[in-house]
Amino acid sequence: MAIGEDSPHAMMGELAEKLGDSARAIKEYQALLLQDHTAIEPARRLAALATKAQDEKALAVAHDRIVELDPFDAQGHTGLGRLALKRGDAPLAMREFKAALAVGPADLAAAHCDLGESYLAAGRLADAKREVLAALEIAPSFERAQDLLLKIVDGRGQAGGPGGSRQ
To answer: Is residue 164 scored above 70 in pLDDT?
Structure first.
């Protein structure tokens, strides 16, 4: 089994990308990652392709590998956090969004908003509000943060909905 940038799977993945065959490229990069546990660049290419293709399974594989090999990659932590939030795993989402914030994301306001969403999903309204306000301090007209703040204040974002417990 050849590994690395010169492996058959890496070459086939790059060729498939050049030919515009994203599905084949995704398949080749996933196969490469099964054999090569140190391949970070193919994992990043897989993440980009899987994002465009909306392939959550491939995206999870890619972000797991990126975070495993480069724990200071904020984008990898954010990707894992967003996938966890989609699956309803608020504790994992919180952990990944906290990690993304700790390593310095490119978009600090969005990172605070992500963490706020995970807190809201966990029913931690006070923490969610704190993070959203931090996002709004950075970017006062950030619509996503404004909408999230309204959900928190109205109690619409909780599992229990309006009338649920508030902090």
So the answer is: no
Q: How far apart are CA 39 and CA 37, in angstroms?
A: 6
CA distance 105 to 99: 10
User: What are the phi and psi torsion angles at 33 (to 5°)?
Assistant: -65, -25
pLDDT tens-digit map of 56-78: 999 999 999 999 999 999 999 99
Which two three-digit tokens encode residue 83? 């996938």
Residue type, 9: H
What predicted TM-score, i.e. pTM, was given to this entire model?
A: 0.82
Q: In this structure, are residues 101 and 111 in contact, taking their beta carbons and an 8 Å threshold?
A: yes
Q: Which pair of tokens denotes residue 167?
A: 């902090």
* Residue 10 CB-half CA count within 13 A: 17
